[in-house]
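Table 4 source record.
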Amino acid sequence: MIGCKKTEPEVYPMKRLQKAVALLLLLLFLLPSGRTFADGETGDGASRDMIEKASSTVDQERENAPAAPKNNYDERLYQQIQSTYIAAKKRSRRRSFKGYCGAYVANQLVVLGINTSYLGANGKNTFDVYRNMACTSGGYAVTAYNAKRYTLLEALTAITSQDPGAVNILVGFQKGVSKAGKKYGHVLFIHGIRDGYVYYSESSDRTISSVKYQEGEPIVCSLNDFVEQYARYKLDGVIHFEKKRKELQPSMTEDIVDSSSEKEFAMDRASFTSPNPQPA
């Protein structure tokens, strides 16, 4: 009919009150659990106060975390670690080093030209192999920092104070923390220290500062985090290899595998008699 308008059915006062009470109860039920339609679901039943407190804690942790390396990282060192790991596996005819830290470090030293021949040992013996050397077979001068006189932090600080762009540092531990580490010790090779950050890799999977790294993957962490990571290890000493003769600059050739590789692989197996090697 012209002039008529559609009217909504009348809602009685009692029904209106019931709707209001139901709505209020619904709001009281949802708000403590953090279910706000405007901000989205939290999904964990946490209240807004709890969420804000957790966010504040995360922000605080981010503020206290060490700053990222300048320009993110030193690309040359990062790539060197990657290529050295690949070349070390190829040279030793291995698919993985599986925690054989002595074999990994020994092969890295040959690949980088620090040694011209393989010189392997258990982790706990590697520092002793080099500490009385004046020079390596590859022409690198050897400076030893014995744990009797230096802590790990003191040794690395002494090296970087003399050479801010220090590279080629070996760290030997008399004992690790695992069953195999306590028996065979541990050794690792630092490719370089830049702007207070350590560049290296490990012979087994590691978690450092809540970040997981696979075997051979470049690890970049602050000097303090590095020292903290190995705080429970018993230090043997630190070796700094310094290049002296320009004509013997380190190089990685195309033909990485040499005639002595199979013999060295046998030496690796004989040196590490643990039936099931574990991270040190």
